[in-house]
Amino acid sequence: MSPNPFEHPSAVIDQVRAAAADRRPLRTVGGDTKAFYGHPTTGTPLVMSSWSGIVSFEPTELVVTVRAGTPLAELEAVLADKGQCFPFEPPHFGAGGTVGGMVAAGLAGPARACVGSVRDFVLGAQFINGRGELLTFGGQVMKNVAGYDVSRVMAGSLGTLGVLTELSLKVLPVAPAEATLVFELGQADALEQLHRWGGQPLPINASCWVRDDTAPGAPELLFVRLRGAVAAVEAACTRMTQEAGGRRMDNAQAGPDWTACRNQTLPFFTPPAQDLCLCLWRLSLPQTAPVLALPYAQLVEWQGAQRWLWAPASAATELRAAAAAVNGHATLFRAGADGAPGVPRFSRQTPAIETITQRLRQQFDPAGIFNPGRT
To answer: Which fold has domain 177-255?
Structure first.
């Protein structure tokens, strides 16, 4: 990886200070692969893609420190060369995604429910606040006396608290063995089976339930991925197929399918041709939530905790009420061709969370210049 010629992000600091003085909005841009996520925001682009490079990486310590503009694919290739990975499987949504964008978006792939979120792997963060100050947080550097783990708060903030410049991240070894099992089960039976397996010592790493084809009568399939020690994976394959039928897939076929699920390139994620104004919704629910009585085709991940569906923006009230009824929430993840004007992308925060959010923004971005309105 080529070293970045800059030794300090002073140019970015100058831009932030000038914008704060003028109260001029800034729109942070890495690879711009997740611009669809959250409310559209305007402002002068603050491009961070040139601030790239691995600062330090010691494979035996399972920690990498990297500049925020580093291409995610490039860093993952370096990790893979050492037999390591980000186990939460961050989606790419395009070739230009950056590490800073990965953390700012806080999105994770199929293994999220079993291995943890992006936030769980952030050890430290360096960022520029709304006053143009370069701050560093993390257990190895300084204790945050405010009581918040600020480095992890940055995960999922969508760039509204500051401009990420450097991140220290935990990585893990690639699992020694992997297998994918597929079962022909309806959604209710699939969820019940997943909950049953969840109470057993099985190396389940990811799950995906989906109707394999949109045609009437097409099979409804549950895919379950196992990862772990060779003996544990082999024993689980035998036990699970004996208990629920099903078959084992060839890893050469299953691997690309899981990558497609992670990056939302499966056929399910293609907007229905008959109505390009349909929106992709994400329902975040407790794993034990039952099948929701909604008239929309779904794809279910995270052992029931994440459910995707295509529905019009006008269904926002219906979807959010259904999610709230089981203590979950609904997000308008991708708007349709009309942009879904006037429809909130995220469910309303609880009063307690809203208070904390406002205090953090006042502390780190008092002029409100970073990605205003994004969340």
So the answer is: Alpha-Beta Plaits (3.30.70)
CB 106 within 8 A of CB 39: no
| C-beta separation of 46 from 12 below 8 A | yes
Write out the DSSP string of 306-374. Answer: EEEEEE-GGGHHHHHHHHHTTT-EEEEEE--TT--TT--SSPPPPHHHHHHHHHHHHHH-TT--BSTT-
| C-alpha atoms less than 13 angstroms from C-alpha of 201 in its C-beta half-sphere | 4
Residues 6+ apart with CB under 8 A from 355: none
Give me the residue spans of the domains in the chain: 10-173, 177-255, 269-365
Contact present, 151 and 124 (Cβ < 8 Å): yes
More confident residue, 352 or 9: 352
Q: Which CATH architecture has domain 10-173?
A: 2-Layer Sandwich (3.30)
**CA–CA gap between residue 24 and residue 136 (Å, rounded):** 25
At 206 the three-state DSSP class reads strand
Contact (Cβ atoms closer than 8 angstroms) between residue 93 and residue 264: yes
Give 235-293 as a DSSP string.
HHHHHHHHHH--EEPPHHHHHHHHHHHHTT-SGGGSPPTT-TT-EEEEEE--TT-----
Q: What are residue 172's phi and psi, to 5 degrees?
A: -135, 155
Task: Determine contact, residues 4/22, Cβ cutoff 8 Å.
Answer: no
Residue 169: both structure tokens together: 């991240």
Residue 215, pLDDT score: 63
- State the chain's mean pLDDT as an integer: 92
pLDDT of residue 146: 47
Residue located via tokens 């580093």: 70
State whether residue 102 is helix, strand or coil.
Answer: helix
Residue 10 to residue 312: CA distance in whole angstroms: 45
pLDDT, tens digit (0-9, with 9 covering 90-100), for 193-236 = 999 999 999 999 999 999 866 666 788 999 999 999 999 999 99
